[in-house]
Amino acid sequence: MQLVDIAERLAATGGIGAMTLREVQLQSGQRNKSVVHYYFGSRDGLIEAVMAARMGPINARRLAVLEELDPEPSTRNLVEAFVRP
């Protein structure tokens, strides 16, 4: 299991404040205690990677929906473009 997946699961179950780098390292089976720092630079870097992994596809879908809208879309259509994906 990837570090990002493990961090996401830990944050989802215990909250982002309860997600420790030590627990991510342990659950990934890594013996290197600096594995998160090596790949992501910091805890914040790991959290950004989790967000990018989940928000990237959603934002791509949003952009696709926005491109399909009329040149002057209604407020409802704009809201739907941001909420539905």
Mean pLDDT level: 94
Helix coverage percent of residues? over 70%
Measure the end-to-end span: 26 Å
Judged by helices, strands and strand pairing, the structural class is: mainly alpha
Which spans have pLDDT < 50 for at least 5 consecutive residues? none
Task: Give a quick rundown of the structure.
The chain contains five helices and no strands. It is mostly helical and 85 residues long.
What does this structure look like?
With 85 residues, the protein is mainly alpha-helical. It has helices spanning 3-14, 21-28, 35-40, 43-68, 75-83. The longest helix is centred in the middle third of the chain and has 26 residues, at 43-68. The radius of gyration is 18 Å and the shape is elongated. The relative contact order is 0.12.
List the helices and strands and how they pair.
Elements: H1 3-14, H2 21-28, H3 35-40, H4 43-68, H5 75-83
List keywords for this structure.
single chain; 85 residues; mainly alpha; 5 helices; elongated
